[in-house]
Design brief:
Elements lengths: L1 H10 L9 H30 L5 H17 L2 H24 L10 H14 L3 H9 L4 H31 L6 H12 L4 H10 L18 H6 L1
């Protein structure tokens, strides 16, 4: 995500369409925040690996997807995918806070995850704004990125779920209850992903902008943690 943002900004550096200095500053702020985010992820992954709940293999697989996309897809496509993924993670983050999904998580992991959710919501508009400038506000580019983002997230989700099952079952065949518990958080009717569908579909509205979505932020439980 950082590399896509930086390359896209560099490609626009001498373009009058980049406009205000504020967008440059926001993209730099986004990159700095994402770098801090990545470092926090590494520390969390190290802790989970020490406990036998995660391995470095998953991080390598996730990183390889980003490298493959940058190598084989146009930069504009990567930017559109990144903007759509940012919309997905922002919606999921605020729903997680609203529905208190993290209540059973112990500290200090709870604090890290809540910070992660707030950070996703805070910078939800930056890559979208960069995409709008870079593509000349192309609606087709936005729609293409939206569809491709679910392909990317589907691959990553499959790998992560398979990895978690493997770590949990210690290479034995997983029980049906274990598979169901991993999927239910997101895919069940009461799950986070199911609840996020209306907010994800709004991305396809021609006049959509991420900063318009405030009703989730105004929820009492979200305001309390903001």
């Amino acid at each position: 995500m950082i590399e896509v943002a930086r390359r896209s900004l560099d490609a626009l550096e001498n373009s009058p369409s980049l406009g205000k200095q504020s967008l440059r500053d926001e993209v730099q702020w986004f990159c700095d925040q994402e770098l801090h985010h990545a470092n926090a992820h590494l520390k969390a992954m190290d802790a989970l690996e020490t406990q036998g709940a995660m391995s470095a293999e998953l991080s390598g697989q996730i990183e390889s997807v980003g490298k493959w996309l940058l190598k084989w897809l146009p930069l504009s496509w990567n930017l559109s995918i990144s903007a759509a993924i940012e919309n997905v993670t922002a919606a999921l983050a605020i729903l997680i806070l609203r529905d208190r999904v993290l209540d059973a998580v112990p500290e200090p992991m709870l604090g890290l995850l809540k910070w992660h959710c707030k950070e996703e919501w805070e910078h939800r508009h930056v890559i979208f704004d960069l995409m709008q400038v870079s593509t000349g506000r192309s609606y087709s580019a936005r729609v293409l990125g939206w569809f491709l983002s679910f392909v990317v997230l589907g691959v990553l989700g499959f790998w992560a779920t398979s990895h978690c099952l493997q770590m949990r079952t210690k290479n034995r065949l997983p029980r049906l209850s274990e598979i169901r518990s991993l999927f239910s958080l997101f895919l069940a009717e009461e799950g986070i992903l199911f609840k996020s569908i209306p907010y994800l579909l709004r991305y396809l509205q021609p006049g959509f902008h991420p900063l318009q979505s405030r009703e989730l932020l105004d929820h009492p439980r979200v305001r309390k943690t903001a």
